[in-house]
Amino acid sequence: ETFKANPDSVLSNYPLTDEERRILKIADAWALREMAVHPILIRQYTRVFGIEHEKIFTNSPHHPFKSKAAP
């Protein structure tokens, strides 16, 4: 709950890059995957944000198929 209320305050306690902070604040599952975060940790992390299991990767702006139109 503290993280959701004030993510910058929580994240400032860790040695993260600006990009890592941004990824964590928006719960970008695809970017976390690319950073080699374990899938179980990604799932638990995205649950905090209320992201449904089926949408954890498709909601990511980094998803490789995000910008392609559906056939």
Q: Can you walk me through this structure?
A:
The protein has 71 residues and is mainly alpha-helical. It is 48% helix and 0% strand. The chain is built from 5 helices and no strands. It has helices spanning 2-5, 7-11, 18-26, 29-34, 39-48. The radius of gyration is 13 Å and the shape is globular. The model has no long low-confidence stretch (mean pLDDT 82).
> Quick one: overall form?
globular
Rounded to the nearest angstrom, the distance between the terminal CA atoms is 40 Å
Query: Per DSSP, what share of the residues sits in E-state strands of 2 or more residues?
Result: under 5%
Give the ordered list of helices and strands: HHHHH
Brief account:
The protein is an all-alpha fold and 71 residues long.
Secondary structure elements and pairings:
Layout: H1 2-5, H2 7-11, H3 18-26, H4 29-34, H5 39-48
Structural features:
71 residues, mainly alpha, 5 helices
